[in-house]
Amino acid sequence: MLKITAIGSGDNGNVLHYYDDVTLVAIGGGTSTIEDFEGTAPAFTGFGGTSTEVIDNPDASGENTTSKVAQSTKPVGAEVWAGSFFDLDTPLDLVNSTSISIKTWSPAVGAVVRLKIEDKGDNTKFLEIDANTTVANAWETLTFDLSAAAPAVDPTFNYDRFVLFFDFGVSPTGDAAYTSARIKSENLYEFTYGRVEIRAKLPSAGGTWPALWTLGANFDEVGWPTCGEMDIMEHVGNNPNVVSSALHYPGNSGGSAVTSSTSVPTATSEFHNYTMEWTADSIKFVVDDELIHTSFANTTDTPFNSDFFFIMNIAMGGTLGGSIDPAFTEDTMEVDYIRVYQ
């Protein structure tokens, strides 16, 4: 029996960054506001452990005295590539622009802030620019020079998704508010196609986010979501009677993934079988051999035709996990077995 236990330590290990006044600078010097967070907040999608929300400005001084800002939370143990994005109603005209400026607040000097602007319909079309913070615990304006973007601006792309990574390349360390674990079979057991059956009992505490999933084995070469992700089972303690499954791939990732859910009233008190039937033609997710709640037509154009590896973990909070019960002490996911039939 595999047991993964999340434990509350009582300490706060989250690293917070803030940003505001995202501005596009045109050739000739004219400016236009991309987002200032003073109106309706954009719909943020976090990944890798990071979450973002609009809050009251916690340090209305210096270069930024506005009332609302975006807060990016990167917890201890988050992926080094963790970040978040929001979509734009109108694509940015980067061809006739020189730079993008962003007011940022960081707790440290030298933090890498990576800006990625991509086509939300095809995230293989993008550009990236890095900048480094130069002050700690104060607002500053970072300038992202479009002439330094990699790859270069392409006039045929729709640049309508704004992605931001703070502390890119590192994961916070120190005493975490919550500790947990994951186990993965990367470079140990990787496979293509088959019927996967995982028998598990899930944690019930508010804020727990257990997942039984697979990731494309070429992740380290092509990145996410190009490698593909198949989530056999996800569950959140704040919605204890529902389990979901999802497929993430270019054009359908993060908040746009192909997903569905089904009711399992005893998911946290009894063991159930969570199954994926994966072939070259289709991907189906099954609960207890009866409830098929996502069926996907697989084709040669998707990334679901090569080796994947297993990941089992419990996350705490985050975009899907939601608010953590303030009385949380610990909770466990138990996995009886994984079987792969081919």
UniProtKB/TrEMBL annotation:
<dbReference type="GO" id="GO:0009251">
    <property type="term" value="P:glucan catabolic process"/>
</dbReference>
<feature type="domain" description="GH16">
    <location>
        <begin position="45"/>
        <end position="342"/>
    </location>
</feature>
<dbReference type="InterPro" id="IPR050546">
    <property type="entry name" value="Glycosyl_Hydrlase_16"/>
</dbReference>
<protein>
    <submittedName>
        <fullName>Glycoside hydrolase family 16 protein</fullName>
    </submittedName>
</protein>
<dbReference type="GO" id="GO:0004553">
    <property type="term" value="F:hydrolase activity, hydrolyzing O-glycosyl compounds"/>
</dbReference>
<dbReference type="InterPro" id="IPR013320">
    <property type="entry name" value="ConA-like_dom_sf"/>
</dbReference>
<dbReference type="InterPro" id="IPR000757">
    <property type="entry name" value="Beta-glucanase-like"/>
</dbReference>
<dbReference type="Pfam" id="PF00722">
    <property type="entry name" value="Glyco_hydro_16"/>
</dbReference>
<comment type="similarity">
    <text>Belongs to the glycosyl hydrolase 16 family.</text>
</comment>
<keyword id="KW-0378">Hydrolase</keyword>
